[in-house]
Amino acid sequence: MAQNDSDNLLTRDEIEFIREMFKEEPGQGVAEGMTPLALDQSEHHGELVNTLLASCELELKAQVGPHRFVFPFEVAPTLEGRVQLQLALPHIYEGHNNIRSWRFQPRDDELRLSDYQDHFSDPVVVDISKSGICIRDTAPRLDPTIPTHHLTLHLPEYDEPVSLRCNLVRFDDCPHTADAKLIAFRFSEDSPQVSATISRFLFSRHRRIAV
Predict the structure, then answer these.
(1) Distance CA 57, CA 73 (A)
(2) Ordered alpha helix ranges (H), the chain
(3) Domain that includes residue 28, residue range
(4) Predicted model pTM
(5) CB 3.0-4.6 Å disulfide test: which of 110, 189, 197, 202 passes with 102?
């Protein structure tokens, strides 16, 4: 999963465009700066709105230079029991629908990974993206013939750990560390909330690098 890190970092222009879309103020995070779109759920429109939200995928698209930004809408309830739409972090495409990967290569101790079956001895996250994670571990007790695994990822600055349902896609000898393995997992596509959480984490790290 490892690639040239500079190819996978958001540029300053991309980061500034995203911040502008969310009207992010100094000191705010993206989630805090999201601008909601209120929906009319009056007696005449409430049923129509609920039907629309249940059957449609709403997106906002924008072209910025050579890149195409696609912002999905998320449904968020209000205190009054109504719903509003919020922009989620975008998918970025370049060229002919080639998705631009958001990756991050953390320090050895920056992210913690565990699993309830105790398959790892001392796992180190070496690469994480919106779609998967790669770890290095010495003497793992993981069975490479089992395709699906459940992991727990602890992100800094997040109170709750992230539960991951993953598919094993790589189990190789580590070229730089004796007796270690490189193990890569692809996240299940049926967990949009997990994808959104990891996207926010990656964006926060890309912002720090671009400053």
Answers:
(1) 8
(2) 12-21, 30-33, 46-55, 192-210
(3) 5-99
(4) 0.64
(5) 202
